[in-house]
């Protein structure tokens, strides 16, 4: 039987593939052409829907050529998107762009219209013209052109960094909500600083190949732990790259010995991270776009400020959730079944601001927007998160002190401003009035 990890990788491949859906469109077009030929002549068509053999051949030939040309046009746009994303945005964003359903729908419609028209063209004869099919082919061309205009409009607007940041943020928030709902159980501490684990690790399950941990099957690991009466401890969080031979799972206790190959089939490894169980990957993409805008080659701090708007939104969502460094999932009697590391609020905050502070510390508006972000978090987050925010504010102050030697410039950079420059006001120490 196919393991869960293999099925996961196949799903990931299907989601990012640009040829599977168009292939279905191609097959569907050929099938619909046969259906149109079978229906032709079964009912009376309007006079405007009747064509001569030469007209039908000309129309269908033009449609076939047009669809091939439009397919090449869309592929060209895709190549330009890849160039822009890898050059000015983040190569990591491409994993989300490949999943765009509109792009796949456009390609599938073009391929289906091509197959439909080509199949009908082969059946045109002097005494037999597929009148219904020719009319439907014309309607398919109209639909294809409409989808093409929608596609061009969408990508013309959505290739701006701020639009991509909004898309990535919403994607990451959905993944975070789904992940918290799946593993957001009462905190139970086991191991070195908590309750003892049931015996020493009797089995170490090692990775057979190198790769990034893309996901693991929570329900499958729980069921295996129940079946063998043991506790599984995952040694690395989702997103870590592990060399071949690295210990991935420790098996503690148990009434029977689990098969290491079956356990490895519940952990998906790949060439790079995915966002499926890794909401921090969305934050990684946002930070990549911001620091690329701050690089000397681009020198666009305003884009970095706009990305910080969405980073702040994501941090607010993260800060409202109960995140832990370690998760423990147990049975009804409280016996631990599955333990695995997670990411804390401090991890997300450090990822969000450290590199932007390092690369943007010489930019006045970046420093001001970063300060406004941190001060805004102080206003809304629960007390347990505030120490980390204050520590980041101190690091920002120290960076500004080191890099702005002019007192006036230093004073300007130390004012929080949500617009970077032009919208900042000193925070009042007491409410007005």
Give your account of this protein's structure.
- This protein has 433 residues and is α+β, with helices and mostly antiparallel strands.
- The chain has helices at 4-16, 20-39, 53-88, 94-97, 101-121, 131-158, 161-183, 218-228, 260-264, 280-293, 301-319, 345-360, 364-380, 383-403, 407-413, and strands at residues 201-206, 211-216, 230-234, 241-242, 247-253, 267-270, 326-330, 336-341.
- It has a 5-stranded mixed β-sheet.
- A hairpin with a 5-residue loop joins strand 7 and strand 8 (336-341).
- Helix 3 (53-88) packs antiparallel against helix 5, helix 12 packs antiparallel against helix 13 and helix 13 runs antiparallel to helix 14 (383-403).
- The longest helix has 36 residues, at 53-88.
- It is flat, with a radius of gyration of 29 Å.
- The model is unreliable at 428-433 (pLDDT under 50).
